[in-house]
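Sample intake sheet
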Amino acid sequence: MPELTDRIPLASRLHGEQAAYSYRDSFTLPVRRCDLDAEGLVALFFAAVPPWLSRLTALRNVLVRPFGLKTGTGPMLPIAPPFTVGQRIGLFRLLALDGREAVLGDDDRHLNFRISLLLDDNGGDGGTPALSASTLVRPHNRLGRIYLALVLPIHRLAVPAVARRMAALIDRAP
């Protein structure tokens, strides 16, 4: 059974950056095919956001606005390519599109975060194609540490939920 771990896949761009971040996690699921590119992964990520998470994100935006934290521009909705590095999509900035990996994240005054969406032919067991959703977070100050502590319980539910929905969409496609 897949589980949330602190092991960033070796094939991920985030693997080499993880020492600079105090929090890390990764969730890897087997998939039947590995033919999506990075732009396809970004589109799939936003299509796979469950309605409950979209509502929680909208609530988060209302609650953090008085603290001067960055907020998205509305609910997390499906979005279609083309995408460009540097593009803002909701709470996320697109930081890299590289083969079968997309990296989203942002830098804010309270913390920096990175999310990798990776399709890997060799997956976590060295042979099965897999989808990995990995996260790095670096709080900068007390506000960042408090914020991280408050959102981690939701994050630990959200990452597997989105990854499972992404994997199901990948496997369902012709």
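Comment: The two ends are 25 Å apart (CA to CA). The chain has a mean pLDDT of 88.
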